[in-house]
Design goal:
The chain is α/β, with parallel strands linked by helices and 153 residues long. It has a single domain, classed as Rossmann fold. The chain has four helices and three strands, in the order αβαβαβα. It has helices spanning 24-35, 52-60, 89-100, 129-148, and strands at residues 38-44, 75-81, 104-112. Strand 2, helix 3 (89-100) and strand 3 (104-112) form a beta-alpha-beta unit.
Length: 153
């Protein structure tokens, strides 16, 4: 199995209602969402929840665009990283958001504790049980995406 991937970098994304819908970072986000068949949402956990910038990304996506939302029917995998001990607060909240955005949220998810120990200097994840879990989540996302392809309507 293989998949084409793109990464959206939210740096420069304005707060919701602080910029017009044609702001370049907002337009880039919407274009990426419309392009995708499946998405991976990942956020650090801060103060027991997802980050504000992550929530802003979701808030910029309309629920309805000509009767169909830009996330509707797409598959979704959720992940989080923690600076400290294991937690699942953020992945649970991301699942709720995914369902609210009418996405097919896969049952598998990943939470990486002590993330500062899990990546090398180049930013690549080191081999570990966390890495294996993340690979498993991505494989399941691809499988669900293939199973639901052309059935989103």
């Amino acid at each position: 199995m293989c998949a084409e991937t793109r990464i959206y970098d939210p740096r420069g994304l304005p707060q919701v209602d602080d910029a017009p819908l044609d702001h370049p970072k907002v337009a880039e986000l919407l274009k990426a969402s419309l392009w995708s068949e499946g998405q991976v949402w990942s956020s650090p956990e801060r103060h027991g929840t997802m980050t504000g910038i992550f929530k802003s990304q979701i808030d910029w996506l309309p629920l309805d665009r000509g009767g169909v939302g830009p996330t509707q029917g797409r598959t979704l995998a959720v992940c989080q990283v923690n600076a400290g001990s294991q937690s699942f607060n953020t992945v649970n909240q991301l699942c709720v958001l995914g369902r609210w955005m009418r996405m097919i949220t896969i049952p598998n998810q990943s939470s990486v504790a002590k993330a500062y120990d899990e990546f090398d200097d180049a930013g690549r994840m080191k081999p570990s049980s966390y890495y294996d879990r993340l690979v498993d989540v991505m494989e399941e996302l691809v499988k669900f995406t293939l199973l639901t392809r052309d059935r989103a309507d």
